[in-house]
Amino acid sequence: MKLPQVIAGLLMAQEKYDANAFSECFSDDAVVFDEGKTYHGKKEIRQWNEMTNVKYKTKYEPLEISIAGDTITLTAEVSGTFDGSPAIIKYHFETRQGKITYLNIR
């Protein structure tokens, strides 16, 4: 499956549990919504990723991707140390100039 460069970079960073590289895929003013919480900017996104790496040890297997301009929807099988693993989860991204500006995980 051919993934946009920023999404491929995000998944590669997650595979290595590299929260710094993960957060660098986002714009400075990016917003992430996950599990009812909102994270603003690279610092909070890095901290959120560090926390989820420790807590869940998540791995992503991309199943489907749809791209409409700067909007990307990734469907992935996510496994880790969480109840219900593995789960099929949709990631709704908005991008600008090769960076993620918005991510909503449902």
Automatic annotation (TrEMBL):
It comes from the Bacteria. Pfam families: SnoaL_2. Residues 13-101 form the SnoaL-like domain. Coiled coil: none annotated. InterPro entries: NTF2-like_dom_sf (IPR032710), SnoaL-like (IPR037401). This is Nuclear transport factor 2 family protein. The lineage of its organism: Bacteria, Pseudomonadati, Bacteroidota, Chitinophagia, Chitinophagales.
